[in-house]
Amino acid sequence: MSRMSRTDRPYDLVLFGATGFVGALTAHYLAAHAPRDLRWAVAGRDEHRLERLRERLPGGADVGVLRADVSEPATLRALAGHARVVATTVGPYVLHGEELVAACADAGTDYLDLTGEPEFVDLMYIRHDARARETGARLVHACGFDSVPHDLGAYFTVRQLPEDVPLTVDGFVTVDAAFSGGTLASALNQLARARRMLAASRERARHEPRLPGRRVTAPTGAPRFAAEVGAWALPLPTLDPQIVRRSARALERYGPDFRYRHYAAVKHLPVAVGGVAAVGAVAAAAQLPPARRWLSDRLRPGDGPDAEKRAKSWFSVRFVGEGGGRRVYTEVAGGDPGYDETAKMFAEAALCLAFDDLPPTAGQVTTAQAMGDALIERLRSAGITFRVAAER
Fold it and tell me: 232 — phi, psi (to 5°)?
């Protein structure tokens, strides 16, 4: 099935879940920065809230309003049929996301989300990658802080290294920011589903084609003092290294033998030890429904840091890449990672799929695989730093 031209469907882009915390930030970003000829709509289950949001948007009179509900699959199929690109903020995705993925895969509609849930990504590959390849749909998960800076940062680093040689890249994440109720709910749900997450990962491995003549790994690594960045490096068990590994599997530019490791960078050892203990305690609590409910009640979905707090927040991801006798230090950096910059990354990725001249891809793809240099340039123009800090 060929890709739809701009005139084949009423909208270039539909933002689903637009009245949520990140959804509203994304809608405001699109209203302020999208090209004037963008045909777009906001979607969700409450038309009155959507209309109130539209009234607050610059140029909102030109923005469409569509009702769609995850509990009504017919509305999601209609939504997918109205758009060339659908961007959804409605999570936790493993609970609420699959029907929209299926609708977009069937309709040949490009899809992107903000998930950080490995189980969801693996299940969507198993169930919908083949159909999306048939229709030409691009299914792009993790298009916010999970996992754009890490995926594109590793890609950017690899581009600074020699071709056709074994390569290693280590990523070191530093963040000063708060998080929202939706993020907490998604994280607790993920921690409570550890067995199902492992089962989905194993099932995916049985479906993925082998890589003849190439090797790609993303080992967890061990806690260590990383002299190359002057900080304690703690392995981060997030979705990000899996996304980087999938980009490396898809793109031969990563070389015949590629390894990626993903860390949190912490300056002081007591803080590092405390962080490990806190994560362990939350993971243990998430296994018990009463404790999980108590934690969820501390910060409900829809709540998030105010503009003043977000203005003081920032992130930096430093990468150390080696191969072919060269070492390169790079950095991806920006402001508030969870919300302002996530909304920016999400919106720019959606616009990239809608308008840019991109490599021919289909099925479940990563940001590096589907958008690569084009999205990096968009994000640079939007104020996110991609730079080479040093090389030798």
Answer: -75, 135
